[in-house]
Design the sequence.
């Protein structure tokens, strides 16, 4: 069954529909997200926040921190906070070994155009390769976790190291109002699961790979160190096509065929692996987000979903590239593609902590996205 309003369907095992065939994601967006988003824009709420950040950052090298992937959200966010809100961010990038040439170029164009230094954290490749291969061997869908976990860990490490109180994040309601289901993509910051999968399938100890703990960055840093996270794109008018055009005209920024394709691995993972192995198409929540925010029609989304994100010849080329990069054979990688399916519940995890945190945040009115 597919939603009558967006393109989310029962490939999300937790989806539900009302009597009119509209899914819970769309209902939540209309009831909880749109009013909050409009109120923020109407009252210019981020200007109040940015003024506080500037005031508290006086005399410091940086007043906030922002991670750059080279993708649209982080690029546009960096552009706006510097040119419109006069913030002085520490800009960092995590090189996990999978950067595309376009992403590298976009990062350079933005930081150079804005006169900013870039801090780059290069992840130990032998450990990254071992961990990435371990996730393939595990059989879970969320094989992108090694990249995500490294990014989250480095972000909070830098914030703590440089004593920066404000983390700015490119997450937003405009292009991400409907999230990937939990059964597709599990939380990237679950240390217990990462360690468990590496211990079972990895070939190297994670001596240099940056590891974080949800209790450290979700509880200790916010409540004992006063580090706060803001998503400025939820406070300003943000439209995908307009943002891409603005960045191109000012910096020569280049776009991508699909969201998250700034990473060569994620392009393969979302454009081929998830669809071929599990039938999970991340374009469904991406397009649905654009539908509910008025940036795409449902008919256009359905038409685009009729084709694969990666043409067959490109998918084959990427398959060979991933195998070669991980120093395994194409046949070995193919064996993981057809192996029995597993999910996050098959390994040690801290899902209960995330569920508890989400419930508390919802009770306090701080969590507006639909439950994954």
Sequence:
């Amino acid at each position: 069954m597919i939603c009558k309003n967006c393109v989310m369907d029962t490939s999300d095992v937790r989806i539900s529909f009302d009597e009119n065939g509209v899914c819970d994601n769309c209902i939540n967006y209309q009831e909880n997200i749109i009013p909050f988003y409009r109120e923020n824009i109407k009252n210019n709420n981020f200007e109040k926040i940015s003024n506080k950040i500037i005031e508290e950052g006086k005399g410091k090298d940086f007043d906030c921190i922002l991670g750059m992937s080279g993708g649209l959200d982080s690029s546009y966010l960096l552009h706006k906070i510097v040119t419109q809100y006069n913030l002085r961010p520490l800009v960092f990038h995590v090189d996990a070994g999978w950067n595309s040439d376009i992403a590298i170029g976009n990062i350079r164009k933005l930081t150079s155009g804005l006169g900013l230094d870039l801090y780059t954290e290069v992840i130990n490749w032998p450990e990254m390769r071992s961990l990435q291969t371990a996730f393939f061997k595990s059989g879970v869908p969320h094989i992108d976790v090694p990249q995500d976990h490294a990014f989250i860990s480095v972000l909070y490490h830098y914030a703590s190291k440089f004593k920066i109180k404000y983390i700015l994040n490119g997450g937003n309601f405009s292009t991400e109002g409907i999230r990937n289901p939990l059964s597709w993509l599990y939380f990237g910051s679950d240390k217990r699961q990462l360690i468990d999968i590496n211990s079972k399938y990895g070939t190297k100890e994670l001596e240099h790979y940056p590891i974080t703990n949800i209790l450290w960055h979700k509880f200790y840093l916010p409540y004992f160190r006063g580090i706060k996270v803001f998503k400025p794109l939820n406070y300003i008018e943000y439209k995908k096509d307009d943002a891409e055009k603005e960045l191109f005209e000012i910096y020569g920024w280049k776009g991508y065929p699909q969201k998250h394709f700034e990473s060569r691995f994620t392009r393969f993972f979302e454009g081929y692996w998830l669809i071929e192995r599990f039938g999970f198409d991340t374009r469904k929540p991406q397009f649905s987000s654009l539908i509910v925010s008025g940036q795409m029609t449902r008919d256009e989304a359905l038409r685009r979903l009729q084709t694969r994100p990666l043409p067959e010849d490109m998918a084959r080329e990427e398959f060979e590239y991933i195998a070669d990069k991980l120093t395994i054979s194409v046949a070995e990688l193919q064996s993981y593609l057809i192996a029995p399916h597993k999910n996050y519940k098959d390994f040690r995890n801290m899902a209960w902590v995330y569920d508890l945190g989400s419930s508390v945040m919802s009770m306090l009115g701080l969590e507006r996205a639909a439950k994954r």
Summary: DSSP finds 16 helices and five strands in the chain.
